[in-house]
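Dear U.,

Please find below the material for section 3 of the report. The protein was modelled together with zinc ion; I have listed the sequence and SMILES used, followed by the predicted complex structure.
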Amino acid sequence: MNNPTINKLLKLYPRIKLQSGESFYWSPEKELIVYNENLIDKPVGKWALFHEVAHANLGHVNYSSDLGLLKLEVAAWEEAKIIASRFRSEINEDHIQDCLYVCKSLLQIINVTTVKLIGLCLRLDFVDHID
Ligand SMILES: [Zn+2]
């Protein structure tokens, strides 16, 4: 896919691997970032992609507790803001808070063990959030 955001991302972070898919997530097993190319030109799509690149850059692999998952999400958003700044862009703070709220809410209904079992991991991120 020849997209300016993707091209620039690969230039800035040559070690990342990207693959087009239905949603946005980081797969630590495959060391692969999946993104939805239909959303990549929208702000939310870019923010989601930066967030997943952040997980990859920070080497996020697993979670030891519910709190751990949330901490990783917060850290990923902080890193995503730095990535966005390299694109001369900013991530909407309300969007970040919304995503963290979704994450917190999900953790109340499914625990981390379940998340691991069903292989959801960071796929929690935006599946239910982007329309
Ligand atoms: Zn995340």
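For the text of the report, you could mention the following: Helices lie at 4-12, 43-57, 66-86, 93-109, 112-117, 124-127.

Regards,
Y.
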